[in-house]
Every structure is written in structure tokens, then in C-alpha cells.
């Protein structure tokens, strides 16, 4: 059988993740990897979760080991609604405005299914979160990208593009704008309040939905929290995605969509066709965890750990990268990443072979572009390596850049 002949257009267009390919060698013991964007397992409350898991399996087995509604666990909904009110100041959340999803990744998939057709236009940030790109790509939309600046997406550029699209009579094809406003993955920046308001004003004018993806908002090390787009504009304009993956554990696979009830209803119907429901077991574990522990207090040591690692990385960059004239990086107020941009002429994919030879790993910026654009940037994650490895890794990375720069006559 020729598989190519049998495959659907989606099936034929599937590509394995470039990140996975690049990080194949990063697992050796001598390697220092800033590649993985996953939380530090030491932050997972494993004893608490183990105790709760035993309880809810033994006591609530007729619920936790059974099928569940597509909408999800009502106890989790109560707890989640309290949490969302607390962290975002959003009041009056109704049950039918919330849908639990198998991580935010499923929420992204659901949004693509209910909003995007082949000729739809979908606005992304550049660089973009790859998980969203791969979920949306399944619907073959036309991607438009808006550059991310130090204080969030370039809303002037967005406005200009929308004006051009409107002039061509295509504005009705624009379905949504996807944004990660807090501690962007991978750009590590946070959108300013002024830009949040401008974004909403522009989207109100052109009647475009905003998809606000906020997995990192609770992981703030410094500075004042900014109001969410949802809080500022409400469910008529914004669908908010949140997840336990970065603040509790990704292993539970629990995310939530908060939005207008008719949108949530559509997403629920689409989810039913995909997987009927999220696992009852992990939803109930999360519900009981939130009920028993104050998650905002519980994550404080984890935030301290990440803050300390981030400080170590920034300090090492300030010291070691002073020899690389024109290199820039963001000192993030939260999240898991530092985004570094090298001077013109560098190509972080081209540099990867040198990095491999020195056993230090990062994600080249090209991986976060939709059209595979060569990039002078790279994403470094500080969450996994211990602090002494961060220091050593940055030193190796400096040597990589200097060696590559000399090879290419850039330094
Ligand atoms: C990690 C991350 C997610 C979370 O995905 P889950 O499916 O909930 O694990 C969503 N969006 C962004 C931008 C992320 O970085």
C-alpha cells in the first residue's frame, strides 16, 4: 500500500517537531540544555497529589473511574471559578462559560476547529508559540504575523495590516488574533497595559476575536501584574485559555477555556467528537487539590526557584556576553524563558553545529517562525538546569557564538 496515496491533506502535511530533532543529542550527561520548555519536576507537589489520588480513587470511584460530561467536573468548575476570580479579578463567571480541556493544547485545537476554514485569516505573533501554530495549521488558514516588541506585539503594525486587509474587502476572513500577553513563549516579554488597551480598541473596531493564552501569568517574579485582556474587554471580545501545566503539573493535562457561553458551547460540541471528556480522575484530583491547598501560596517556592535561576542566567549573560557586541536579551518579569537576539549576520540554526560540538543546546529562533525564516535569535529556558550548569552553559554558549562569529567573519 502506498501511504502517500491514502493520506488526507492533513495527514500528508504533518511534520515532526524541529525542536525534537534539534534536542536529540541534548540528553547526554555532559550536555547542558536550555532547550526544554518544561517545568522543573521538583516543583510538582507529588506527595499531596499522591494522597489525593488515593482518596479520590477509593472514595469517589463511581465518579473518578467513570465517564464524565464533556463540560467537565462541576467541583473543579467551582474551584476554577474561584481561582480565576482571584488571579484575574473576573467576577460573575457562569458554569456555561467554562470548558475543561486536555491541556491548553486541546483548547487551541478546538479554537481552530470552530473558527478556521481554509481561506480564514489568523493573526499570530512573531515569534510564535509553536503548539498554537501546529494546532491552527491543521485547518490550513492564511497566517498573518505581527512582530513582538519589548512591550508586546506591535499593535501599529497590526492596525496597518488590518486596514490593508479591510481595503481588499477581506476583513470578514480574519477570525482571531492569538496572543500570549504574559511572559511570552518564546519572546519572554509582557504586553504593556497601553498596548492591551490599543489591541482591544483595534479589535473592537474591526470586530475581531482575541485568543488570550496565559499559561505563565501566575509565574511572576517581579513587577505588578497587568490586567488580562479578558478582564479589560470581557467575553464579547476575548476567549481566555489557562492551564495547570506550568503552575501545578502538565501530567494532569488540564486546561480551561473561559469565554462567551455560545463559543464555549460550540467548543464543547467539537470536544465531544474528539475525546468525549477529559479524564474524570485528573479533574477530580485537581479539584480536591485546589480545595485543600491554596495554590497561590503553594507555588511561591517554585516561583522563587525560577526567579533565582533566571537571575543566575541574566547575571551570567551580563558578564560573559559583554564580548558579543550588539547581543540583546530580555530580563523577563516571569515565565520560563530568556530570548536572546544576536547581531545581524548570525544564524542560530547555522550555529547549532558549533553548539553541538560544545555540548550546549538552545532553540533557534527559526523554530518559532511560521515560514521558516532564518533568525538571529534563540530561546533559552532556565527552568531545568541547576544553577551551576546555567553558569557553565552560558560560558559555553559565549564560546559557541565567538567561534561561529569568527568562522563567518562577523567578529
Ligand atoms: C506551555 C504552554 C501551553 C500549555 O500547554 P498545555 O497543553 O496546557 O500543557 C500553552 N500555551 C503556551 C504559550 C505555552 O507555552
Beta fraction: 5-15%
Spatial order of the strands forming the largest sheet:
2-9-8-7-6-3-4-5
Largest sheet: 8 strands, mixed
What percent of the residues sit in helical stretches (DSSP H or I)? Answer: 40-55%
CATH fold name of the largest domain: Aspartate Aminotransferase, domain 2
- CATH architectural name of the largest domain: 3-Layer(aba) Sandwich
Large-scale geometry? globular
Please count the helical segments: 17
GO molecular function: pyridoxal phosphate binding; transaminase activity
Family: Belongs to the class-I pyridoxal-phosphate-dependent aminotransferase family.
Subunit structure: Homodimer.
Domain Aminotransferase class I/classII large: 48-397
Structural description of this entry:
The chain is of the alpha/beta class and 411 residues long. β3 (121-126), α8 (130-137) and β4 (142-149) form a beta-alpha-beta unit. The protein has 2 domains: 3-44 and 297-408, Alpha-Beta Complex (Aspartate Aminotransferase, domain 1); 46-295, 3-Layer(aba) Sandwich (Aspartate Aminotransferase, domain 2), CATH 3.40.640.10. The strands form 3 sheets. An 8-stranded mixed beta sheet has the order 2-9-8-7-6-3-4-5, sandwiched between helices. A 4-stranded antiparallel beta sheet has the order 10-11-14-13, covered by helices on one side. It is globular. The longest helix is centred in the last third of the chain and has 21 residues, at 300-320. It contains 17 helices and 14 strands. Bound molecules: pyridoxal-5'-phosphate (PLP). Pyridoxal-5'-phosphate (PLP) binds at residues 103-105, 129, 131, 180, 185, 213, 215, 243, 245-246, 250, 255.
Amino acid at each position: 500500500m502506498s501511504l502517500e496515496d491514502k493520506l488526507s491533506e492533513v495527514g500528508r502535511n504533518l511534520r515532526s517537531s524541529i525542536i525534537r530533532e534539534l534536542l536529540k543529542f541534548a540528553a547526554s550527561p555532559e550536555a547542558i540544555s536550555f532547550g526544554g520548555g518544561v517545568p522543573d519536576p521538583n516543583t510538582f507537589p507529588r506527595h499531596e497529589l499522591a494522597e489525593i489520588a488515593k482518596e479520590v480513587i477509593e472514595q469517589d470511584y463511581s465518579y473518578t473511574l467513570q465517564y464524565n460530561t464533556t463540560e467537565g467536573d462541576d467541583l473543579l468548575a467551582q474551584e476554577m471559578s474561584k481561582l480565576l476570580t482571584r488571579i484575574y479579578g473576573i467576577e460573575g463567571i457562569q458554569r456555561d462559560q467554562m470548558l475543561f480541556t486536555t491541556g491548553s493544547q486541546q483548547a487551541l485545537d478546538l479554537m481552530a476547529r470552530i473558527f478556521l476554514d481554509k481561506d480564514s485569516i489568523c493573526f499570530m505573533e512573531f515569534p510564535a508559540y509553536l503548539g498554537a501554530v501546529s494546532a491552527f495549521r491543521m485547518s490550513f488558514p492564511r497566517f498573518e504575523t505581527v512582530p513582538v516588541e519589548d512591550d508586546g506585539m506591535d499593535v501599529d503594525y497590526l492596525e496597518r495590516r488590518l486596514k490593508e486587509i479591510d481595503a481588499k474587502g477581506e476583513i470578514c476572513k480574519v477570525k482571531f488574533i492569538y496572543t500570549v500577553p504574559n511572559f511570552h513563549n518564546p519572546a519572554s516579554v509582557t504586553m504593556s497595559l497601553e498596548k492591551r488597551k490599543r489591541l482591544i480598541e483595534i479589535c473592537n473596531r474591526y470586530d475581531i476575536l482575541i485568543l488570550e493564552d496565559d499559561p505563565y501569568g501566575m509565574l511572576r517574579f517581579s513587577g505588578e501584574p497587568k490586567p488580562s485582556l479578558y478582564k479589560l474587554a470581557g467575553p464579547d471580545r476575548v476567549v481566555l485559555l489557562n492551564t495547570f501545566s506550568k503552575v501545578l503539573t502538565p501530567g494532569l493535562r488540564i486546561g480551561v477555556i473561559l469565554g462567551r457561553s455560545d463559543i464555549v458551547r460550540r467548543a464543547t460540541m467539537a470536544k465531544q467528537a474528539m475525546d468525549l471528556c477529559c479524564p474524570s480522575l485528573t479533574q477530580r484530583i485537581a479539584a480536591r487539590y485546589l480545595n485543600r491547598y491554596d495554590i497561590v501560596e503553594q507555588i511561591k517556592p517554585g516561583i522563587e526557584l525560577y526567579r533565582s535561576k533566571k537571575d543566575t542566567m541574566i547575571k551570567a549573560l551580563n558578564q560573559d556576553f559583554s564580548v558579543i557586541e550588539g547581543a540583546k536579551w530580555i530580563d523577563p518579569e516571569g515565565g520560563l524563558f530568556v530570548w536572546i537576539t544576536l547581531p545581524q549576520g548570525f544564524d542560530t540554526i547555522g550555529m547549532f553545529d558549533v553548539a553541538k560540538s560544545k555540548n550546549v543546546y538552545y532553540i533557534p529562533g527559526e523554530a518559532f517562525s511560521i515560514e521558516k525564516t532564518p533568525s538571529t535569535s534563540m530561546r533559552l529556558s532556565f527552568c531545568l538546569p541547576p544553577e551551576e550548569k546555567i553558569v557553565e552553559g552560558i560560558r559555553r554558549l559565549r564560546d559557541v557564538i565567538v567561534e561561529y562569529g569568527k568562522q563567518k567573519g562577523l567578529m
